[in-house]
User: Which sequence fits this backbone?
């Protein structure tokens, strides 16, 4: 079950050119493409003639042309050409999904189109600020449910166990991190403070810390699948009055988790370098370090998914560090229930 009346990242904007891209989202086969004017569109990936996937076709001046018998559909899914036939039946159309290009993403709405208000799309202005926050992005296909990846990001006590060689550090530093938490209508925001702690390897590489550091991580989860993160660190003592405007080390991460199926997801993520913005090598190094760390997360989550599929969730036990994760799950469950109630009432 997925929340459908919500915006999900369907693709990075630069992934979609005029070659059709097939991507399963929330269980539905979708084809993404750009028309000749550069407008991006999303249609169900099935031709209404004989059911061929539209993604095996090509983009023409009129829209996307099916690769089987040449029916062509515009960005709205209306059939605009049938080879050898003048009359186009009114029923000759395929489902189109609302799609918005913003902040380097293509956002898709998988539910009722009439409810797709664009003001609820998560904004991420740092992707548009190459001067102060140069970034790099990619997509990992994960053989694990989107919610398991969100769980992973809501309980950072895993850092000291999963990421010892990168962004980790002493396990107890993470377990004992002080948490400031704010609940929001669509999720949760928290800051983790690790003052006077030993810098993890990635931080030493990035900023050459030699002594102890003050370290903070801010996470904001916005349902159904966006997490906005700021990580900051400076010499020990620097955070005694809260998080300073600028820190010796500061970077931002965007995490977009979009369900593919119930047990697989697309992990869209980016790193933005706010500590040495004029140094492309620093931007690249940050990206590579985080890429390594996220591979470590994926390995755990994929193993976890395999076990949960095999043995179910009934025997799982919550612990204290699950608090943010549990709140996040409650928000998602509430939104799902609300959506199903509305559907039942209609
Ligand atoms: S199946 Fe697409 S044109 Fe025939
Ligand atoms: Fe992790």
Assistant:
């Amino acid at each position: 079950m997925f929340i459908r009346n919500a915006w999900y990242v369907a693709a990075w904007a630069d992934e979609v050119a005029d070659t059709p891209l097939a991507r399963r989202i929330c269980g539905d086969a979708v084809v993404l493409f750009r028309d000749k004017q550069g407008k991006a569109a999303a249609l169900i990936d099935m031709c209404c003639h004989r059911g061929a996937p539209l993604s095996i076709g090509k983009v023409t001046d009129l829209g996307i042309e099916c690769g089987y018998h040449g029916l062509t559909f515009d960005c709205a899914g209306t059939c605009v050409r049938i080879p050898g036939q003048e009359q186009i039946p009114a029923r000759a159309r395929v489902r189109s999904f609302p799609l918005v290009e913003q902040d380097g993403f293509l956002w898709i709405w998988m539910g009722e189109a009439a409810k797709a208000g664009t003001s609820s799309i998560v904004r991420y202005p740092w992707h548009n600020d190459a001067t102060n926050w140069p970034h790099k992005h990619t997509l990992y296909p994960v053989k694990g449910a989107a919610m398991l990846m969100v769980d992973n990001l809501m309980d950072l006590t895993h850092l000291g166990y999963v990421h010892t060689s990168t962004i980790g550090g002493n396990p107890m530093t993470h377990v004992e991190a002080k948490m400031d938490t704010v609940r929001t209508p669509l999720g949760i925001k928290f800051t983790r403070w690790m003052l006077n702690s030993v810098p993890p390897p990635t931080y030493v590489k990035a900023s050459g810390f030699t002594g102890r550091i003050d370290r903070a991580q801010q996470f904001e989860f916005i349902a159904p699948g966006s997490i906005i993160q700021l990580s900051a660190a400076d010499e020990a003592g620097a955070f005694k009055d809260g998080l300073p405007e600028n820190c010796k080390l500061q970077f931002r991460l965007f995490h977009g988790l979009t369900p593919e199926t119930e047990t697989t997801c697309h992990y869209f993520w980016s790193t933005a370098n706010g500590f040495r913005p004029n140094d492309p090598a620093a931007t690249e190094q940050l990206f590579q370090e985080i890429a390594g760390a996220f591979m470590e997360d994926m390995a755990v989550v994929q193993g976890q998914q395999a076990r949960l599929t095999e043995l179910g969730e009934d025997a799982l036990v919550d612990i204290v560090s699950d608090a943010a994760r549990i709140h996040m799950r409650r928000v998602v469950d509430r939104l799902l229930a609300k959506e199903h109630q509305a559907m039942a009432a209609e």
About this structure: The radius of gyration is 22 Å. The helical segments are 146-154, 159-162, 171-175, 201-207, 280-311, 323-345.
